């Protein structure tokens, strides 16, 4: 009996040792900006096409030295398409809109920007500053595809959102000073939870922020 119990304990220990510190193997990406690091966890099960597309841009270095070109307080920060010179980078082909994946545009989630055409997303993404249910998929709204969430650096996101805004030509929501994504790269381990995370990811807000279908288009 003792030998049997001892064997079971040993087996359990082997199982726990074999498991990674974090059971999920979701890809993690770090956006290293001039204001600090933003770590995002991606959701390949719910948004396989979108995650594959985003990681292709990350792995190719596409996002390096791009900027957050749109900051709308109480709504989103958007980037991933323009250089500091405000030159738009050449992108890969557009992808399928996966907004019907059941994920909501909650505060600190990561989603794809697009034109009014649903299947038009390429490289640009945005981070929701608040819960934005008006951006979710419905029977009458193609929605914006959520494919990840900020897991560390929420304070950096909020700092970007708090910057002054200037208008330059067609760019009406440029942060001042500019916020450069110096490098986007995969990271291996999940960071510790950020104590500055403004809210529980499951908490819903009634604020729709007055969103419109074309607010998150490629053009500012």
UniProtKB/TrEMBL annotation:
PPIase cyclophilin-type domain: residues covered: 35-186
A Pfam family that the UniProt record links to this protein: Pro_isomerase
Entry's Gene Ontology BP terms: protein folding
GO molecular function: peptidyl-prolyl cis-trans isomerase activity
Region Disordered: start-end pairs: 184-220
Catalytic activity, reaction form: [protein]-peptidylproline (omega=180) = [protein]-peptidylproline (omega=0)
Entry's EC annotation: 5.2.1.8
Keywords in alphabetical order: Isomerase, Rotamase
Class in the EC hierarchy, top level: isomerase
InterPro entries from the UniProt entry: Cyclophilin-like_dom_sf (IPR029000), Cyclophilin-type_PPIase_CS (IPR020892), Cyclophilin-type_PPIase_dom (IPR002130), E_coli_cyclophilin_A-like (IPR044665)
Skewed-composition ranges (Basic and acidic residues): 185-206
Family of this protein: Belongs to the cyclophilin-type PPIase family.
Stated role: PPIases accelerate the folding of proteins. It catalyzes the cis-trans isomerization of proline imidic peptide bonds in oligopeptides.
Name of the protein this chain belongs to: Peptidyl-prolyl cis-trans isomerase
């Amino acid at each position: 009996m003792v030998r049997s119990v001892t064997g079971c304990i040993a087996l359990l220990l082997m199982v726990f040792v074999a498991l990674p510190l974090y059971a999920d193997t979701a890809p993690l990406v770090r956006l290293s900006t001039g204001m600090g690091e933003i770590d995002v966890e991606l959701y390949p099960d719910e948004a396989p096409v979108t995650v594959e597309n985003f990681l292709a841009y990350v792995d190719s270095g596409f996002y390096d030295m791009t900027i957050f070109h749109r900051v709308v307080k109480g709504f989103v920060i958007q980037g991933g398409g323009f250089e500091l010179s405000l030159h738009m980078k050449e992108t890969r082909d557009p992808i399928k809109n996966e907004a019907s994946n059941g994920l909501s545009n909650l505060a600190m989630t990561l989603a794809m920007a697009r034109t009014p055409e649903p299947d038009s997303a390429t490289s640009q993404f945005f981070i929701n500053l608040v819960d934005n249910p008006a951006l979710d998929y419905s029977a009458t709204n193609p929605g914006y595809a959520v494919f990840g969430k900020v897991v560390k650096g929420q304070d950096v996101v909020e700092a970007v959102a708090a910057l002054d805004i200037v208008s330059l030509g067609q760019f009406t929501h440029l942060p001042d000073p500019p916020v450069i994504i110096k490098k986007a790269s995969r990271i291996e381990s999940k960071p510790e939870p950020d104590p500055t995370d403004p809210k529980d990811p499951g908490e819903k807000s009634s604020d729709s922020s007055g969103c419109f279908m074309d607010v998150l288009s490629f053009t500012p």
